[in-house]
Specification:
A 4-stranded antiparallel beta sheet has the order 11-19-18-12, with helices on one face. It has a 3-stranded mixed beta sheet with strand order 2-1-5. The chain has a 3-stranded mixed beta sheet with strand order 4-3-9, covered by helices on one side. The protein has helices spanning 3-29, 55-68, 97-105, 113-126, 141-152, 184-194, 216-221, 238-249, 264-268, 296-309, 489-496; strands at 43-45, 48-49, 74-79, 82-87, 128-130, 160-163, 171-174, 179-182, 200-204, 207-210, 224-232, 254-256, 261-263, 279-284, 287-292, 313-316, 343-345, 352-358, 362-369, 376-388, 393-397, 413-417, 422-433, 436-448, 453-457. It has 11 helices and 25 strands. It is rod-shaped and about 150 Å long. A hairpin with a 2-residue loop joins strand 1 and strand 2 (48-49). The chain has 503 residues and is α+β, with helices and mostly antiparallel strands. It folds into 2 domains: 21-210, no CATH class; 222-496, no CATH class.
């Protein structure tokens, strides 16, 4: 083929292609004038035929129509017994109609040429009708909806327990509160949808509810009586009774959080008159003497036994030098400022509540908290191991003349204290499940050391010719045996260390 013919064929092919594209483009856009931003034929906005109009023309027409009918607009929102109502006049004029019209205009003019052709065909066959919601002329509606939300929204509130041991109902509960939050996004969507079909709009406010973490029901499940323990103060003197109850009252109403540690000495404070304590017997060097705060050890012992029966962790506990008679051996808890303390810990994962009480005969402690597994019961067991023989009497010379009004001369004697045998005893906790012993745990192995007797003797020499009255103080030698048994030790202690004298 000649060069001229080849050039002609190529030119003809390109020309046909251009004509084809031109024809396709004309078919695609139909009667609309895309370059001048005019709407397709068959397009309606809010019932107005806007075929051939520009975006600005449609915006003006629709704005005028919507603003002129604002007086016919009303919006009512409802939630429960709350109602919020506005008319169109309660809103400002909103100038967002133009952007809405531009959004409508973009329909069918995005995507490739095949997608646009399909859209135009659909508009020609079915028409294109769209409604701009009246929210476009309700300026400030967002602020009004946020105000409604603030009125309805409620943070979830946990139930609260109030512990008042002095009340008839020692536990009172403050109900939980369900959280409420208006779903603003859905509310706006619902308002938009409603305005598509009516100018008189009533919308139910959508609210999302949230449950609190703690309910009254869950609190009640977490609180039960774990233990009770009592001791007698019936034979104690008035001031000692006062001290026992004064110390225990420091714990009345106490709430101990999970993992919290408590010191008896810290809670009760100094045993002074300024702190409300009176004079009563205390133990000093193995002897009962009068001192401020006597009886506090019975308070700590009563509390200690309630604690172990509640299965709480004991971090520090110590025995007395003289075993008290108000509790079994190895179950006492001696406290002394700066020397001995009762320290315990809430080893459960829930709060522990302490109630104390007392009258002229009895003092007691109740401990509440997370209930034990059903069928579980804890009991104490004291095991008397044996007697520790006392060393007998020791004679002490009154060189300081401390007892000069009672003994003066050598050979004159005054018994200051009797020797006392000591004891070894073990303490156990027994765990019963539905009446069957499932565990026995040794918690203490204590020795109450024997006490030597003290006899005071004068120091002056007898003058020539002087004689002394007959000596009535009998010297007691070291102990070699004892008839004290486990079943008789409590009676012997009550006789030798009467509870009325106990620290």
């Amino acid at each position: 083929m000649k060069k001229g013919k080849k050039f002609f064929l190529v030119t003809l092919s390109l020309g046909l292609a251009v004509l084809a594209v031109f024809a396709f483009t004309q078919y695609t856009y139909g009667l609309s004038v895309f370059d001048n931003k005019r709407f397709y034929n068959g397009t309606q906005v809010n019932g107005v035929d806007v075929s051939g109009m520009t975006v600005d023309e449609v915006s003006n027409v629709i704005s005028t129509k919507m603003i002129s009918s604002r007086s016919d607009v009303s919006l009512t929102l409802k939630y429960g017994d709350k109602t919020y109502k506005w008319t169109g006049e309660d809103f400002e004029v909103n100038n967002e109609i133009l952007s809405a019209v531009e959004d409508i205009f973009s329909y069918g003019r995005e995507g490739d040429i095949f997608e646009r052709r399909g859209t135009i065909k659909k508009i020609k066959e079915e028409g294109y009708k769209v409604t701009i919601p009246y929210t476009y002329v309700l300026g400030g509606i967002d602020e009004k909806l946020e105000s409604v939300a603030m009125d309805i929204n409620v943070e979830p509130k946990d139930a609260v327990v109030h512990f008042d041991p002095s009340s008839k109902e020692i536990f009172e509960y403050e109900e939980e509160q369900i959280g409420k939050e208006v779903d603003l996004e859905k509310l706006k969507q619902d308002i938009n949808t409603a305005f598509q079909t009516s100018l008189q709009v009533v919308v139910d406010i959508p609210v999302i509810e949230s449950e609190p973490d703690v309910t009254v029901e869950s609190l009640k499940k977490d609180i039960a009586l774990r233990s009770t323990f009592e001791t007698s103060i019936a034979t104690s003197k008035t001031d000692r009774k006062h001290n026992v109850k004064r110390a225990l009252n420091s714990f009345n109403g106490m709430v101990i959080q999970a993992g919290e540690e408590v010191s008896f000495n810290t809670i009760t404070g100094s045993r002074t008159a300024e702190n409300g304590y009176k004079k009563a017997n205390v133990i000093l060097n193995g002897v009962y003497v009068e001192g401020t705060g006597g009886g506090v050890c019975q308070a700590s012992t009563t509390l200690y036994n309630a604690l172990i029966l509640a299965d709480l962790e004991i971090l520090e506990v110590n025995p007395h030098s003289l075993p008290p008679s108000y509790v079994s051996l190895a179950f006492d808890a001696m406290v002394s400022e700066g020397y001995s303390d009762l320290i315990f810990k809430n080893n459960t994962d829930k709060p522990i509540y302490i109630r104390t009480y007392g009258d002229d005969k009895t003092v007691g402690v109740e401990i509440y908290g997370n209930p034990f597994p059903e069928g579980l019961k804890i009991e104490r067991k004291a095991e008397f191991v044996g007697v520790l023989n006392h060393p007998g009497d020791r004679i002490v010379k009154d060189t300081e003349k401390q007892y000069a009004d009672k003994v003066t001369y050598e050979g004159e004697y005054l018994r200051l204290k009797y020797p006392q045998e000591g004891y070894r005893s073990k303490a156990y906790l027994q765990y019963y499940m539905n009446g069957e012993l499932v565990e026995e745990k040794l918690i203490r192995d204590e020795k109450y050391l024997p006490q030597e007797g003290i006899i005071i003797e004068g120091t002056e020499k007898l003058a020539e010719g002087m004689t002394l009255p007959e000596n009535t103080v009998r010297f007691i030698p070291p102990q070699t045996s004892s008839n004290t048994k486990g079943d008789s030790v409590d009676k012997k202690l009550e006789k030798e260390n009467p509870s009325g004298l106990n620290p």
